Write a sequence for this structure.
């Protein structure tokens, strides 16, 4: 099914290094294999690396868009698999906290692309920053990646708390990464969901889990997306399940979308 409104998925986490960018890269490829038109935005402005994961070196990035030097179409990079990417620019201080003008500009430009995509995935970066909360509040679905480590769980909860208290966000879909087995994954989900239920009164949604797999690192070092190298591994199977599960979930049309983005940006 192709509609004129892309489904916007923000991928976030409390703590860095939990596997967001690897998840975004590979799930984008799964959606592509399911015939979806996919746009990935690298919004982790401090530590951008979606392009590296795909083994491409884009000429332009969001900095050129914000400077008014290039249009959104000019900065979009294309991977050989047919995924479109809006690259971020690393190490630019002004990007780590986008101004209202910059947010408006991004939203306006993205709005023009609406009809071209089915799924729009945003790698928001980690932690509680203005950029992260902005992109999460604009998405239809907020995916929080968490690992079994206690620090990851605590930081993910802190992010959820802020998004709930400050943005009224209530729909969080949890993916547990770096797990040994389903028991560990479920136990991790239970820890975070019990706390969210008890202290915030919200129910978190279980989206799935991914195993720890040493080959993930190898793939990144080789600058080749993992799923292309090991399409039948357990990790890849689980990722496929997550993608299918995600597509089955209803879209909350009351929130998210570019127009919502715009209103939100203007109200800040
Ligand atoms: N399921 C996994 N199994 C093994 N290593 C993983 C897995 N997921 C991520 N990693 C490793 O963790 C590190 C951080 O991943 P990355 O996707 O860059 O995290 P983030 O974007 O959250 O900072 C990378 O070196 C990657 O190889
Ligand atoms: Mg990352």
């Amino acid at each position: 099914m192709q509609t004129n409104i892309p489904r916007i998925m923000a991928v976030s986490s409390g703590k860095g290094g939990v596997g967001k960018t690897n998840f975004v890269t590979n799930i984008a490829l799964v959606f592509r294999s399911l015939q979806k038109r996919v746009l990935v935005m690298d919004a982790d402005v401090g530590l951008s690396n979606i392009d590296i994961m795909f083994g491409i070196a884009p000429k332009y990035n969001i900095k050129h868009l914000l400077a008014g030097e290039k249009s959104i179409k000019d900065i979009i990079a294309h991977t050989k698999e047919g995924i479109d990417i809006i690259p971020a620019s690393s190490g630019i201080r002004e990007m780590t906290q986008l101004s209202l003008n910059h947010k408006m500009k991004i939203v306006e430009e993205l709005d023009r692309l609406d009809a071209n995509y089915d799924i729009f995935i945003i790698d928001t970066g980690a932690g509680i920053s203005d950029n992260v909360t902005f992109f999460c509040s604009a998405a239809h679905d907020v995916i929080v990646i968490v690992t079994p480590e206690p620090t990851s769980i605590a930081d993910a909860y802190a992010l959820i708390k802020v998004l709930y208290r400050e943005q009224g966000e209530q729909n969080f879909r949890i993916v547990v990464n770096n797990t040994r087995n389903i028991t560990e994954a479920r136990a991790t989900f239970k820890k975070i969901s019990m706390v969210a239920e008890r202290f915030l009164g919200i129910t978190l949604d279980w989206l799935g889990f991914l195993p720890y797999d040493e080959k993930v690192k190898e793939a990144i070092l080789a600058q080749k997306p993992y799923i292309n190298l090991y399409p039948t591994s357990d990790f890849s199977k689980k990722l496929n399940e997550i993608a299918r599960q995600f597509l089955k979930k209803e879209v909350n049309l009351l929130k998210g979308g570019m127009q919502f983005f715009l209103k939100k940006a203007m109200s800040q």
